[in-house]
Amino acid sequence: MKIGIDLGGMSVKAGLVNDDLKIVYKEAIPTDIENGKEKLAKDIIGLINRVAEKADGKVESVGIGIPGDVDKFTGRVIYCNNIPLADIDLKGEIERETGIPCFINNDANVAALGEVLAGAAKNYKDAVMITIGTGVGCGIVMDNEIYLGCNGAAGEIGHHCIEVDGLKCACGRQGCFELYASVTALIRMTREAMEQNPDSKMWEIAGSLEKAGGKTSWDAMRAGDAAGKAVVDKFIRYLAAGLVNVVNIFQPEALIIGGGISKEGEYLLAPLREIICRERYSRGKIQADIVIAELGNDAGIVGASQLC
Amino acid sequence: MKIGIDLGGMSVKAGLVNDDLKIVYKEAIPTDIENGKEKLAKDIIGLINRVAEKADGKVESVGIGIPGDVDKFTGRVIYCNNIPLADIDLKGEIERETGIPCFINNDANVAALGEVLAGAAKNYKDAVMITIGTGVGCGIVMDNEIYLGCNGAAGEIGHHCIEVDGLKCACGRQGCFELYASVTALIRMTREAMEQNPDSKMWEIAGSLEKAGGKTSWDAMRAGDAAGKAVVDKFIRYLAAGLVNVVNIFQPEALIIGGGISKEGEYLLAPLREIICRERYSRGKIQADIVIAELGNDAGIVGASQLC
Fold this sequence. Notes:
- Chain A starts with a strand and ends with a helix.
- In chain A, strand 9 (136-142) and strand 10 (145-146) form a beta hairpin.
- The first copy, chain A, is globular, with a radius of gyration of 20 Å.
- The first copy, chain A, has ten helices and twelve strands.
- In chain A, strands 3-2-1-4-7 form a five-stranded mixed beta sheet. In chain A, strands 10-9-8-11-12 form a five-stranded mixed beta sheet, sandwiched between helices.
- By secondary structure, chain A is α/β, with parallel strands linked by helices.
- Helices cover 38% and strands 20% of the residues of chain A.
- In chain A, helix 1 (36-54) crosses helix 2, helix 5 (183-196) packs antiparallel against helix 8 (226-250) and helix 7 (216-222) crosses helix 8.
- The interface between A and B is large, with 50 and 50 residues.
């Protein structure tokens, strides 16, 4: 048995994962980001100990996916978005207090590993997973292992430029993919289209400009609204541009699309497939399989449990 | 001893490579693209046999880099730019006629392997090499092996989009990197600037619009010409955008820049380094080493010789 932990800004979700990569027990606690790093580490250690008891203490390892960067050599957290973990030796503390070997990695990486080992890409060994959320996350798996690059920071597809003179990104670049293909970008495009189209059904569907969300334009499109369809088309065009880039660069066995937006199903996947199949550079019969992530939030737990 | 062959549109260059990855003997023949595939195959086999004699027949393997795509499973050439090789079993014929195991791969891939094993990136195992020529070539080496992707076509950095609404590419996409960062693109930008600037020193340096080449704008810049400097700045801005994308996606140990343009040395490398260091996404001390290719045309021979 192994333990996998998905450490997010709202909750710390732990799962006990068996040899068939099934989660046999789950437990979650709120992420206490208010009372300092020692308290948070103590909370996580307590959670691990409780989950380990369910396996009669027979736990081989614990893996943690975090929304941040980890030093690939020491296992120490370098940076963690809004969570106080960067200045403590979390790996060392967990190992000392629980006696279980601990491994930490980026959350997009472990989700990709989960989908490759037990989810949408379980028939493959090489895959790239793109998670469309507030930003655009990416995990690269090669030969069933996370590809980290020389410094643990590989896979920043969200910060590859698709418009040289494009929008300014907080990272310092211009035209980053996530400024055009994240849910944040979709909501921005939706609100811009609403302001330009006072008669659009998006107004009725959202209720107000402030309430417009990532589903508004899709729902409007399905209700026959032209402005809604134009937003969806624009978003898909940008998203496809970056996804074809991923295919042309990696030619992965599978390209996995995750995040809440993947709930749009074929409304999203059909046009994406059409553009990717038309624009990809490779000749020949073998091509990347384009799939929607299957494990949802469990991908992080399953993937983290298999870190080593 | 191993034989490496660089098969180009003008010549077939063969080298005998020793265990220290030094070329101890070289021979070249013109590439006969006029008299059919059987004749060309016969020429190549004759060349291999002559080079093998210099090693007293003690040759472990022969590797060939071609400007095209190879089926990663069968070793057959799927596509070869302007050279009649796609419809024959070149690997099989060579093995039957010479008795030496034969391996074929893309020329950008083998050049990258050569630079990693014996050239500019010889202290590293993971590197991405970008070759700026008529197009933009790319070879990805991971753990001292060429990364091929699921179908042998990985690494088409030249066809990753950096301008969603950009120029139309022959590949079917818009805004491909090589339309902005190849020597072909540089010459186009140079000629456009000459037409817009009748007083530019580029006219005197080139002699005429038709004679303007990849060096014209650099020479003009060094002679104090503002229009020439503007061309160089524009070209470097686009090139850097794609190179930062490579760094943010791969975080390779080394980013190798090859092709004739790399002869501009620090005039090219200094501004590229400045932009890449400013814009790359990774935190921490370990970063990609940005280097100029060292082996020139020999990279293809050395890299090809190490295919297996």
